[in-house]
Design goal:
This protein is α/β, with parallel strands linked by helices. The chain has a single domain, classed as TIM Barrel (Alpha-Beta Barrel), CATH 3.20.20.70. Helices cover 32% and strands 17% of the residues. It contains 7 helices and 7 strands, in the order E-H-E-H-E-H-E-H-H-E-H-E-H-E. The chain has a 7-stranded parallel sheet with strand order 1-2-3-4-5-6-7. The chain starts with 10 loop residues before the first strand and ends with a strand. The structure holds iron/sulfur cluster. The site of iron/sulfur cluster has 12 residues, from loops.
């Protein structure tokens, strides 16, 4: 249950198994393999999920499908339609790995949180995967053209990001027409890359200035600590 994963709605989050990315700061490492490890004790079938949701109709307002990376799920369009048919709003958390997959569900989504992990030139370094940017950019354009509610978000780790690059990434998003942007700081616990478990910090005044600059670029800007 969550009140922060779908803006202004009481929601639950479904975490789907499997992600093709390898972000060094990933704290959901048990969700990366396509097949869950033996240690994962929260495995539910889709039937279990539907039963859970049926019992909460009228109590929950929204369901957020997260991951892992939900766009790799071949049955995602059917999942989304089924959840909507039960009367819930549906949100999606995604890293935008496939514009084709997003286009198959976008019309049924009520809200999307799209990860923009870094500027184009740093994408492979941050995500551990090459040639991802064109898909992310296409997903962003789909969301902009679709006119539905969405937020772009960037997880910041100062091993990867710099203040000037984060500022220019925000400028790019603002120029594209993004109105809702969130920056969330990596806390350095349980990271896929152990060296990121010792967070680098920036001077407080530099961060305050950056927050002020980013705040002026968007209708809604959030700095999540
Ligand atoms: S996109 Fe990155 S942070 Fe998210 S689950 Fe995949 S590897 Fe982890």
């Amino acid at each position: 249950m969550t009140t922060i994963d779908f803006p202004d709605h009481l929601a639950c989050v479904i975490y789907t198994q499997g992600c093709p990315l390898r972000c060094g700061y990933c704290q959901n490492t048990e969700l990366i393999p396509l097949v869950p490890g033996l240690s994962v004790d929260a495995r539910w079938t889709w039937t279990d999920v539907v039963e859970f949701l049926r019992a909460r109709q009228g109590l929950l307002e929204a369901v957020v499908i997260s991951g892992g990376e939900p766009l790799i799920q071949p049955y995602l369009p059917r999942m989304v339609k089924q959840v909507k048919a039960m009367g819930f709003k549906v949100g999606l958390h995604t890293a935008g790995i496939s514009a084709a997959a997003l286009s198959r569900v976008i019309d049924d989504l009520d809200w999307v949180g799209l990860d923009i992990k870094a500027p184009e030139e740093d994408y492979a370094r941050v995500t551990g995967r090459r040639n991802l940017w064109p898909q992310v950019e296409q997903c962003l354009q789909l969301l902009l053209q679709g006119g539905g509610a969405f937020e772009c978000r960037t997880t910041v780790d100062w091993h990867y990001h710099t203040v000037p690059k984060l500022r220019s990434l925000a400028q790019y998003l603002s120029q594209q027409g993004v109105t809702h942007y969130a920056v969330q700081q990596n806390h350095g616990t349980g990271c896929l890359d152990p060296k990121l478990c010792q967070p680098l910090l920036q001077p407080v005044d530099i961060i305050a200035q950056l927050q002020h600059q980013l705040d002026s670029m968007f209708t809604c800007f959030t700095w999540r600590t």
